[in-house]
Amino acid sequence: MARLVSTPCSGVKKGLPQQVGPGCAERLGASQVRWFECNGNRGSWCGILDRRDDFCWSLVPGGKPEDGASTAECGDALETAMTGRLPGAPAPEEDPEHGDARLHVFEETVRGYADRAMPEEIRRNMANVLTHYTADVHGVLAERKGEARTDMTVRELTPFLRGVFEDEEAFRAVHGAQTARVAEALGELGREDFTRIPEGGTDRAMGTVSDGGTVLGTLTRIRSAVIAETTGDDDPTVKQELIDTHEEYGLPRLRRMIRERAVETGVSEDAAGKSGGRTALLLQEAGQAYTTAANRA
Predict the structure, then answer these.
(1) Where are the beta strands (DSSP E) in the chain?
(2) Which of residues 236 and 266 earns the better pLDDT score?
(3) Which helix (H) or strand (E) holds 259?
């Protein structure tokens, strides 16, 4: 629980934890205090959080051990509570089945860190959790109701991802898992998907590339926002580089994945690159979905 002190929260958003300078901590007689949370209608006072790992442990079924434990240990316990596996264990190749209890902890954790800072010690734990919930994250970000086992929205998931993505390695893990998910979906497409427009109102291939573009573009947007916030550099070229030129994360990689799958199904390289052709239309849709998501306010 926070205890109120007369420390002004100038320029700090209400409810948003910020780092406390050493002078503040010394003045309060709590040299180990690192975080404070602004309270009050005008955000003019701060409440010092004596133990910033208390909230983390409040999310773990069973709570904090009686003999105490660190924030890092809480990250391990919370990860296991959501995955049912040892901390750091890679996600299985098949989508793991998460029972209601684990899914509940996952949802509570995502929503719990939506309006408070995520301790750096648990970011990679949370990234590994997200790789175990790849299908759910994909469904939420693509806004495909029924494809995720949770009713969370993009608006709810985004702040959590921002906290995780402050760690670049954590971002790489989540992005890699989602890229693999897109590749898996592309792998289900056949030659006709890349050569003919289907009859009727359902176009599976168009939906697949659109979802892939939306999901990966959203991850780019969130990561670029983190870079701008942590470096103080709000230069729009940072985001544009991630979108246009970054071969590992950006749009070029998604386009390459689509072309490669088209060729794997028997489409000639010339046909795959032909302007106005079916594959070109899929590439165009993927690009539009990606840039729209990456530039969404």
Answers:
(1) 2-5, 18-19, 35-39, 45-49
(2) 266
(3) helix 251-264
